Amino acid sequence: MKFESPIVRRKSKKIWVGDVAVGGDAPIAVQSMTNTDTLDVDATVAQINELQTAGADIVRVSIPSLEAAESFKLIKLKTSIPLVADIHFDYKIALKVAEYGVDCLRINPGNIGKEERIKAVIDCAKKYNIPIRIGVNAGSLEKDIQRKYGEPTPDALVESAMRHVEILRRYDFDNFKVSLKASDVFMTVAAYRIIADQIEQPIHLGITEAGGLRAGAVKSSVGLGMLLMDGIGDTIRVSLAANPVEEIKVGFDILKSLRIRAKGINFIACPSCSRQNFDVVQTMNDLEERLENVTTALDVAIIGCVVNGPGEAREVDLGLTGGSPNNLLYLDGKPHHKVNNDNLVDELEKSIREQVRLKEIEQEKLIVKS
Ligand code: SF4
Question: Checking DSSP bridges between strand 327-331 and strand 334-339, what pairing results, if any?
Fold first, then answer.
């Protein structure tokens, strides 16, 4: 018996980034950002497509210059996923990419400059009906806020964001979302908790510059996990100094862990010990690699022996319990057939793909009925 999720999501206004809803009752969107040179249109398009294949809902692209805005025009034409333009310093870039069909404008209040410039971006966002993300970052707060607080603090991050929220409100613009990122988990979590009560718009979560693949994934999981448990967060980006496809995988793993959003195989596996009846670690590595392309949600348990195997297998769609001389495969919680260690991974892959196929048929039937 699984616990019901205790998470009650904060109520937020729904906005649209292209055809992806963010906030309200929409699923928490997972996003990443390209790290190619935006001037290299082919490389950027290829990476956007890889991210889309990995399951990304939204992709952000850095537009550092007006020349890059021209590349963006081509990139937008050659891709189909909603794209957010990341803009710093020069508001005119925002006006350009809006004309070229961008789905959201991310501006950094700390460096976009005077109110007239923000007003120009707002007018443009209204004209093209696109949302704005106010993206505050602890590393680039406005100078006067830095002076006031001495160093980045949760209140400083919130003050920076709210200053710009007020400008948007003054110009009657409510089609926005907000992020408040710091590389420190406590600061980030505290800042998001404060702003969650001050706005009704969606919140974009992230721990910025979290680090490399392993440490960054852990830091992001801890920080985002605390906020998601509070019901805060409508879209997430895991920032890793790694291939951005990993950001999408980790993002979904975080949501899967909290049973917020299911995608692909949710593996439950024991760490293995001398009781194991097959090589659990190698089997897991092989299965993860082979089944990476599965997007249908399925719970699979791979357990090395009977100590915990039957108990776990009973709770999942497909479970394997190590045994001697044979392992036992469970389907839908019931013992189904014996599998020996020869060709174990091939057998498991075949059975898992069959379960996925049956689940997809079930889901299609449900869609037809509704
Ligand atoms: S389930 Fe069995 S093999 Fe796996 S760690 Fe526990 S005792 Fe060891």
Answer: antiparallel
DSSP string covering 230-280: TT--SEEE---SS-HHHHHHHHHHHHHHTTS---SEEEEE----TT-SS-H
Q: In the structure encoding, which two tokens stand for residue 239, read together?
A: 């920032």
- Cβ–ligand 1 distance for 272 under 6 Å, the answer yes
Q: Under 8 Å CB-to-CB from 82, ≥6 apart: which residues? A: 17, 18, 19, 20, 57, 58, 59, 103, 104
Rounded to an integer, the average pLDDT of 330-358 is 96
* Angstrom distance (rounded) from CA 95 to CA 125: 8
Q: Do the beta carbons of residue 10 and residue 21 sit within 8 Å?
A: no
Phi first, then psi, for residue 119 (nearest 5°) are -60, -40
- Tell me if 311 CB under 6 Å of ligand 1: no
Does the Cβ of 313 fall within 6 Å of ligand 1? no
What is the fold, at CATH topology level, of the domain defined by 15-257? Answer: TIM Barrel (3.20.20)
Q: Would you say 237 and 60 are in contact if contact means Cβ atoms under 8 Å apart?
A: yes
| Distance in Å, CA 307 to ligand 1 centroid | 6
Instruction: Report whether pLDDT(310) > 60.
Output: yes
> Which tokens is 63 given?
């537009």
At 1 the three-state DSSP class reads: coil
pLDDT digit string, tens, across residues 153-170: 999 999 999 999 999 999
Q: Which ligand 1 atom sits closest to the C-alpha of 276?
A: 3
Q: Is 305 in the pocket of ligand 1 (CB under 6 A)?
A: yes
Give the Cβ contact number of residue 9 at 10 Å: 16
- The domains of the chain are located at 15-257, 265-369
| 52: exposed, middle or buried (Cβ count in 10 Å: 0-12, 13-18, 19+) | middle
Whole-model pTM: value is 0.91
**CATH superfamily placement of domain 265-369:** Sulfite Reductase Hemoprotein, domain 1 (3.30.413.10)
* The residue to which tokens 């830091």 are assigned: 219
Q: Is the CB of 189 under 6 A from ligand 1?
A: no
Q: How confident is the model at residue 367 (pLDDT cuts 50, 70, 90)?
A: confident
Please give the order of strands across the beta sheet that includes 204-205.
176-181, 132-137, 104-107, 83-87, 58-62, 29-33, 235-237, 204-205
